[in-house]
Design brief:
The protein is mostly helical. The chain contains 14 helices and no strands. The radius of gyration is 19 Å and the shape is globular. The C terminus is likely disordered.
Length: 301
């Protein structure tokens, strides 16, 4: 449990710090360097097992392609959204879109499972909370204040980040089922992200990269990307899934209060209402699976 709590705290602090820093640096440039280092780190860990890893990659290449796509969409959307949106809004968009995607997928395909009444109500609550956050962002009532240029595009980036997070969960779980270890998945999933970010990183800014900039990116990579990945994995291994889900759902609230440290952001009560409605709906839905709806869900899966 301690590992999951640390992950929430570090993740919330990361969102607020990056949101502030991205006002003066290009997020794609930071994305490229930080994930180049991350990919190199995990590949180095698996260097002695590279032949075995490559055989797995070749055998399950479809899943590798899918997790690379979802990782790229998720992280690019996350970084670009943080440049414009209130970090707590980005955190909620990234975390809360999963239940809605699950319900939407069942509605259009009928594949997977028939949602219970509690799950439908959860999705309605999440959708309402997200609508509130979209409204306060577009109306200038979020912690950022006045509506900035590109706000609608930033909201789209935030939703895409949520789509990527949902995809990562599905594809990571599938790779784990077919025999990939945690570090093997992490060695394989960042290739497309690094290539994409490298192609779009602003070349004109490369001349302004100095030692201090690289040191900041290195520290951010170790403390807020590489480190949290291991913390979360250890937490998942040692903690019941229900408790993990509830703990992770607290991240947008933690992000909201970390925003006190960012002078450009005001504490918007409207943002807090949207976050609490969304997170309360998610926690209620999670708890319902372990109460009266548990039997129904188990039978329909």
């Amino acid at each position: 449990m301690i590992e999951c709590l640390l992950y929430v705290i570090v993740g919330a602090a990361q969102e607020v710090y990056l949101g502030n820093w991205f006002q003066s640096v290009d997020p794609i440039l930071v994305l490229f360097i930080s994930f180049f280092l991350t990919a190199a780190f995990f590949i180095a860990i698996n260097i002695g097992n590279l032949n075995s890893l490559m055989r797995k990659v070749h055998k399950y290449w479809q899943w590798i392609v899918l997790i690379n796509l979802s990782t790229t969409v998720g992280w690019v959307g996350f970084f670009l959204a943080l440049k414009t949106l209130e970090p707590a809004v980005v955190s909620t968009l990234s975390f809360a879109i999963g239940p809605l995607l699950t319900l939407f997928f069942w509605q259009i395909t009928g594949i997977g499972f028939r949602p219970t009444k509690a799950e439908v109500l959860t999705s309605i609550g999440v959708a309402t909370g997200l609508c509130i956050l979209v409204y306060v962002s577009l109306s200038g009532q979020s912690g950022i204040g006045d509506v900035q240029s590109g706000m609608r595009l930033a909201l789209l980036y935030g939703f895409l980040s949520g789509v990527g997070v949902a995809g990562n969960t599905i594809f990571s779980k599938q790779l784990s089922r077919v025999g990939f270890s945690t570090t093997e998945v992490l060695s394989s999933r960042f290739v497309l992200l690094v290539v994409t970010a490298g192609l779009f990183a602003p070349v004109q800014l490369s001349s302004h990269i100095d030692g201090l900039f690289l040191l900041k990116v290195f520290v951010i990579t170790i403390l807020t990307i590489v480190g949290p990945v291991f913390l979360l994995q250890r937490g998942i291994e040692k903690t019941k899934p229900l408790l993990v889900s509830v703990l992770l759902s607290s991240m947008p609230v933690a992000t909201y209060f970390f925003q006190i440290l960012d002078s450009r952001i005001e504490m918007s009560p409207y943002t807090l209402v949207g976050i609490l409605l969304t997170i309360t709906s998610i926690i209620t839905g999670i708890l319902s699976q372990f109460s009266g709806d548990k039997e129904t869900f188990s039978e329909e899966v």
